[in-house]
Design brief:
It comes from Stylosanthes scabra. Pfam families: PPR (PF01535), PPR_2 (PF13041). There is one protein chain. A hairpin with a 2-residue loop joins strand 1 and strand 2. The protein is globular. Among the domains are: 55 residues, no CATH class; 41 residues, no CATH class. By secondary structure, the protein is mainly alpha-helical. Helix 7 packs antiparallel against helix 8 and helix 33 packs antiparallel against helix 34. It has a three-stranded antiparallel sheet. It is built from 35 helices and three strands. The longest helix is centred in the last third of the chain and has 20 residues. The relative contact order is 0.02.
Length: 630
């Protein structure tokens, strides 16, 4: 089959020829069969134990994904040098066997920066960021100097501003050359991911050369940190420096316009995509679909989706998200089924989006069907899918199912912790929620506003006054989260329910943010009977200042006046109520029938088929009345 391999003996001087054959195998994309035949000849001629040839065969087997054969080659090498160990380490890393990587690293006679990089990269790729950071520190203790590649790995795994600044300062002390555009871009992306826009500009101002990735990273960083206008401004600077945007630039810009719900500027970017020939790119098209959807132009999203020649998971995911955003859940599920029929592999975000819509618009049986597909799709270890399953089951009150899924999650991010804590609180499991919070603060993940809102809500439901006050007044110092309106609202409501009206008012008056009428409402409702009339009038006045047309202050005042025998004042308050009668409904009820969810609000059915349902309900009421008379 390969005539030039028919050799009976190869002298040592012909090792270069053997090396040439191996290079030929790699550069010309030869088949695995060619490599196996070549390796067999080496074994026959006794050349398989040579270090250089063994390393080349080892590397090629790893490229072909034949890791068992690669390990056999590694065992055959008589004198293994550092390259042999590193190539084998890289092969195990590529195969996903992190345990074997660790074992091989431990038995290595000598390690260099490549060895450490492989191990750190392995932990980082498998989501073990803390362990990767510890290895980075241990590497330096061992006297191995980090390379630019080491730092590029670290920039992808840092999870806090403190660690990011430590990595940056270590790079400066190590004398890393920041003229390396790739490394500088990774620094911008790192700071952008953490919302440190000032540091992004600090990095880019030290760069001698820029590329389109530099600008994309900066534009994305401004957008992610909540500065959309600044993001668009950087695009204008980029164009002034005569950089031509690529697909990712246009995709980021349309995301910015989508966030601003600025259809005008979004269309300008989309027109630029036509001029540059990017419309056929699925990433650009999917972002445009999301743009039109968020700007309430769903018909344009549907039209653009239909015009696509080829479907992929990115496009379908964007269209499914658009359908669910506009409450067209049945259309979203039909499109999901079509993607399966077209052998388009669903993404974890597509499944998460459908699960979220199930918890709002569809019965739990549909969610169970999607859940049964998760292991088949290999998404059981995906955090976003697991978090959506936890959220769905908690919405329906299936607490044990939600806890089981949460406990089985190998990697828990901030969203998953927030979901389980808030869900447990909503289901009245206050002790469980507080226990989860104690477990969470031992994790390396810092809490955010939602986390602390969840635990304060739990304190509210459980009447845990002391814990709530302690958390409220220590959250900025201990966790770096400034208290917001929602945090104050839970504590004020808790104090009001406990009869501590004075303490609640003191907290409101010392709030770091402006007190809204919602916060005063909880105080007003609690002080009708026990508080002084002047306090009630003062609180009612605060509410009417921000909401002149609301009824609650007048209703409470009418009741308070009546309890204290001030009938004239009570009559005036009730007349004020009659003049401000609101026609808006406050809440609604849901009825699930098969795959349909019907909404009842303010004596009106907000769904197709409402008249028939009311006829059935009237018939049932008539039968109940007749049975009662009988």
């Amino acid at each position: 089959m390969y005539p030039f391999l028919k050799l009976t003996r190869v002298p040592h001087s012909s090792l270069s020829y053997c090396s040439f054959l191996l290079d030929h195998c790699s550069s010309h994309n030869k088949s695995l069969g060619f490599l196996s035949t070549l390796h067999a000849h080496f074994i026959k001629l006794g050349l398989n134990s040579y270090t250089y040839l063994g390393n080349r065969c080892l590397d090629l087997y790893c490229e072909f994904g034949q890791f068992n054969d690669a390990f056999k080659v590694f065992e055959e090498i008589t004198y293994k040098n550092l390259i042999s160990w590193n190539v084998c380490l890289k092969g195990f890393l590529k195969s996903g066997h992190l345990g074997k990587v660790c074992h091989l690293f431990d038995v290595m006679p000598i390690r260099d920066v490549v060895s450490w990089n492989s191990l750190i990269s392995g932990f980082a790729q498998n989501g073990y960021s803390c362990q990767a950071f510890e290895l980075f520190v241990e590497m330096q203790r061992a006297g191995v100097r980090p390379s630019g590649f080491t730092f590029s790995i670290m920039t992808t795994i840092v999870s806090s501003p403190c660690h990011a600044k430590q990595v940056h300062s270590k790079m400066i002390r190590s004398g890393i050359d920041f003229s390396n555009v790739v490394l500088a871009n990774s620094m911008i992306a790192m700071y952008g991911r953490l919302g440190l826009v000032d540091y992004c500009f600090g990095v880019i101002l030290t760069m001698e050369n820029f590329d389109i990735i530099s600008w994309n990273s900066l534009i994305w960083a401004c957008y992610r940190a909540g500065y959309p206008e600044l993001s668009l401004e950087q695009f204008h600077h980029m164009r002034a420096m005569e950089f031509l945007p690529d697909e990712f630039t246009c995709s980021i810009l349309m995301s910015v316009c989508s966030n601003l719900q600025d259809l005008g500027r979004g269309k300008q970017v989309f027109t630029l995509c036509f001029k540059l020939g990017f419309v056929s790119n699925s990433t650009v098209s999917s972002t445009a679909i999301a743009l039109f959807s968020k700007c309430n132009r769903l018909e344009d999203s549907i039209q653009l989706f239909k015009e696509q020649d080829l479907w992929d998971s990115v496009l379908c995911n964007s269209m499914i998200f658009s359908y669910t955003k506009h409450n067209l859940v049945e259309d979203a599920f039909q499109l999901f089924m079509m993607t399966l029929r077209k052998n388009i592999r669903p993404t974890e975000y597509m499944v998460s989006c459908l699960l979220s819509s199930v918890s709002i618009f569809m019965p739990v049986e549909v969610g169970n069907q999607i859940h049964s597909m998760v292991p088949k799709l290999g998404f059981e270890s995906e955090v976003v899918v697991a978090s959506s399953l936890v959220h769905m089951y908690l919405k329906f009150g299936f607490i044990d199912d939600a806890l089981n899924i949460f406990n089985e999650m190998k990697i828990k991010d901030l969203v998953s912790w927030n979901t389980i804590m808030m869900g447990m609180t909503y289901n009245g499991k206050v002790p469980v929620s507080m226990k989860l919070f104690k477990e969470f603060i031992r994790e390396p993940i810092p809490p955010d506003r939602i986390t602390l809102a969840a635990v304060l809500r739990a304190c509210n439901y459980g009447s845990l006054v002391d814990q709530a006050i302690k958390i409220l007044f220590s959250m900025e110092k201990e966790f770096g989260v400034k208290p917001g309106e929602e945090h104050y609202a839970y504590v004020v409501d808790l104090l009001s329910q406990a009869g501590m009206i004075k303490e609640a008012i003191d907290i409101i008056e010392t709030m770091q943010c402006k007190a809204t009428s919602n916060i005063w409402r909880s105080v007003l409702s609690a002080c009708v009977i026990h508080e002084d009339l002047r306090v009630i009038e003062r609180v009612a006045e605060r509410i009417t200042e921000s909401e002149p047309h609301t009824l609650l202050p007048y209703l409470v005042l009418a009741q308070a006046y009546q309890l204290r025998g001030k009938w004239e004042s009570s009559v005036r308050a009730r007349k004020a109520v009659e003049q401000r009668v609101s026609k808006e409904f406050i809440g609604y009820s849901c009825v699930g029938i098969k795959n349909q969810v019907y909404l009842f609000a303010s004596n009106q059915l907000q769904h197709y088929g409402g008249r028939d349902l009311y006829l059935v309900l009237n018939l049932l009421l008539w039968e109940i009345e007749n049975e009662g008379r009988a």
